[in-house]
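For practice. Any example?
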Amino acid sequence: MSSTRRDFIKTTSAAGLAAALPPIPVIDPRPRPALRRRRPDDELRVAVIGLRGRGWNHVQAFESLDHVSVVALCDCDRDVLDKRAGEFERTHGRSIDAAIDYRTLLDRPDIDIVSIATPNHWHAMMTMDACLAGKDVYVEKPVTHNIGEGVLLLNVVARTGRIVQSGMQSRSTPAIHEGIAWMHEGHMGDMTLARGLCYKPRRSIGRVLRAQPVPASIDYDLWTGPAPMKPLLRSKLHYDWHWNFDTGNGDLGNQGVHQVDICRWAIGARSMPRSVSSIGGRLGYLDDGTTPNTQVVLLDYPKVPMLFEVRGLPRDRDAQEGDWNGSMDTYLDQRIASIIHCEGGALVVPTGSRDCWAVDLEGRRIMSWSEHADHFANFIEAVRSRETNGLNAGILEGVRSSELCHLGNISHRLGSTASLETALETADTHPEYYESVQRMSRHLAANGIDSEAEAIIIGPTLEIDQVNDRFTNSDSANMMRERNGRPPFTYPKLT
C-alpha cells in the first residue's frame, strides 16, 4: 500500500467521510497539482494486470495504438505471467517487465496507465490504488464487486482527477448510439420495457468434498486479496471464481452487465430503480457454484421497467446430452442481447456485434445500423486531452450499471426456496415479470427439472430510496451492500 493511499484512508476516516459518502462523487475542494497536458506524440506507457484471458486482449489493444506501449505485465500466477511474457517478447520483439504483485508497479514514474482484467473482487481496489498513485485506469466490468465499493470508487476518482474508463465496449459503438437516438426520436412510439438476455451455456463446475490444493505457481493470499480467505473449494481456481459470490457476481454481473448497461443507457436511467426482485436458482445440477444459472430479475423503474434473464442450461434435455453449446434458447432470435420494447416494435442490440436494428411488432427489420469504434482508443484520447467528458464509459457509468447487477444478486441471496407455483404467484404483480418467469418454468420443464423438488429461490422485493441508494424495507439487504476488505487489503469502511 503506497503512502498516498495510507494518507488518504487515514484522512477520510478521521474526518468521518467514509460514513457519509454520497452516491455521486463530491469533488475535493483542496487544490491539487495541475495535470500535465501531453503532446500528441508523447508515448503512453501501460501496465496490464491479470493476463490469463481478457487482459491479454488489453495488451494487444494497447500495442495496436500509436504512441502507446505496454511496458509491464502483472499476474499473481507465475505460470500465466511467464507464458504471457514469453508470448509478448516473441510477438513484439522486445523484452517486458513482469511482476507478481501489482503494488510494485504503482510507484514507478515510467508507468502512466494501469489496465485491470483481474477477477471481479479486485477491480475497485486496484483502481483506487492506481488512481491514488497518480495513474489513469482502464478497468474491466463489473467495475465493482459490491455496491459499497462504488461509492468509495467514485469519490477516489473525483478527488484524484484521474481518467478512468469502464470496460463496457458497447458505449463506443456508433451503431448503438445511432439506434438509440433514432428510437428516442419516437419512430416506434414510447418505450415500454428494457430486456436483457444472457442465454449462455454453463455446464456444472463439478463438486469436491474437501479443500483442493492451490497450484504452487499461484500466490493465493494475493489472489484472494480483499475477499474472505477460504480454502479452495472447487476443482478449478481460474475462471470458475465467477460462480462464487465471494469473488464473482454470476452471469448477471459477468456477461449481463454489458446488456444491463445498454438497457440503462437506452431508458435514460441515472439512478437505482424503485425496487428489485429476483426469482431463480442454481438448477439442473449440484456443484460448487453459489450463483444462479437460471434467473429473472425485475428492476422496477416507474416509466420503463427493466428485466434481465439468465439461462445457463440448454434448450432441452436432449441438448444436455448432445450439443449443449449450440442448443441454447433464443428470444427474438437472440441469445445474448439487449432488447428495448416500444409501442410499435423493438430495438435489438446483440452482444459483440457492430450492428443493431429495429423491428416492428411482427419482427420484421425496419431499420439497421452498423459501425464500430475502438473503446481503448477512446480511453487513450481522453488520457491525452484530460477531458473526462470525452470518455464513452466513464467510471460513473460503470458504477451505476454494476450496481444494478448487485441489486438483483442481493435479492436472490436473501431469498427462500419455494415451489414454481409460488414463484408465479409472486411474479404476478407485474405482467412482464410474470411472463418471463412463466417462460423460465417451461425452459426448466424442457430440461427435465422437477421444479417442485429443485431449489427455486424467490427473492424479496427490495424497495429502494432512489436519492440515498439504500433499501428501505430490509436491514439485511443494506448490510449486503458492502463488505470490509481483508487486511492488509482494506479500504475505508462504508456505512
Observations:
- The two ends are 23 Å apart (CA to CA).
- The chain has two domains: 3-171, 173-372+395-474.
- The first helix runs from residue 3 to 14.
